[in-house]
């Protein structure tokens, strides 16, 4: 029987999302929670991704900001060796429509009855446990699928707006020619077109 994670204290979606919104004022935030077991110890991974707003773009391609916590304690050192960072950075972001210098940031929190720190200083989470690595990866992939959906919707809206703006440029010419053919006033025809397109 797998150990229960009921006793574990998480940061919660409400607190993580509120923190990201306060720090970055992002366009979009998504949150994922996944449970797992390693070496007989229950653990929970909380992961949130935020995009846009005041997030700084990375200095190098796809090197996004990852804010790490273990049992609610921030991890400030050795991020490149940390499982919470490495498993996110190993993702192929192109598959999710993420640009190399996208304004993207993550918060990832691991809580467990025993955090597998790699050093006595408890500076980072060991990347030696397959169960932990897989859970972080799956959480990040789930969050990025939601980010991809948001970006796709945003791009569609931009494309629709651009098409509409191009069409608006031609309305006076179309109305003028129709006016000559039908005898209707050009202004009335322009108004009719805009009404059909729900444009004031």
Report on this model:
The chain has 200 residues and is an alpha+beta fold. The chain folds into 2 domains: 13-153, Ribosomal Protein S5, domain 2; 154-196, no CATH class. The protein is built from 4 helices and 5 strands, in the order αββββαβαα. A hairpin with a 2-residue loop joins strand 1 and strand 2 (41-51). Helix 2 crosses helix 3 and helix 3 runs antiparallel to helix 4. The longest helix has 53 residues, at 130-182. It is elongated and about 85 Å long. The termini are far apart. The model has no long low-confidence stretch (mean pLDDT 91).
Strand order of the largest sheet: 1-2-5-3-4
Low-confidence stretches: none
Helix content: 40-55%
Estimated radius of gyration? 25 Å
Give me the CATH architecture of the largest domain, please: 2-Layer Sandwich
Query: Which fold name is given in CATH as the topology of the largest domain?
Result: Ribosomal Protein S5, domain 2
Compute the number of strand runs. 5
Q: What is the chain-wise order of helices and strands?
A: HEEEEHEHH
The average pLDDT is: 91
CATH class of the largest domain: Alpha Beta
Query: How far is it from the N-terminal to the C-terminal residue, by CA?
Result: 64 Å
């Amino acid at each position: 029987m797998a150990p229960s994670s009921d006793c574990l204290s998480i940061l919660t979606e409400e607190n993580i999302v509120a923190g990201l919104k306060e720090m970055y004022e992002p366009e979009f935030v998504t949150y994922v929670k996944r449970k797992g077991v390693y070496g007989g110890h229950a653990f929970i991974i909380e992961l949130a991704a935020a995009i846009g707003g005041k997030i700084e773009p990375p200095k190098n391609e796809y090197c996004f900001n990852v804010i790490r916590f273990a049992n609610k304690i921030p991890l400030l050192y050795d991020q490149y060796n940390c499982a919470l960072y490495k498993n996110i950075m190993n993702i192929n972001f192109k598959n999710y429509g993420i640009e190399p210098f996208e304004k993207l940031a993550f918060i990832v929190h691991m809580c467990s009855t025993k955090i597998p720190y790699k050093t006595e200083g408890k500076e980072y989470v060991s990347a030696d446990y397959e169960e932990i690595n897989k859970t972080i990866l799956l959480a990040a992939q789930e969050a990025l699928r939601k980010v991809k959906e948001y970006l796709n919707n945003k791009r569609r809206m931009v494309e629709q707006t651009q098409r509409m703006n191009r069409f608006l440029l031609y309305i006076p010419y179309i109305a003028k020619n129709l006016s000559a053919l039908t005898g209707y006033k050009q202004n009335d025809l322009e108004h009719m077109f805009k009404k059909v397109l729900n444009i004031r």
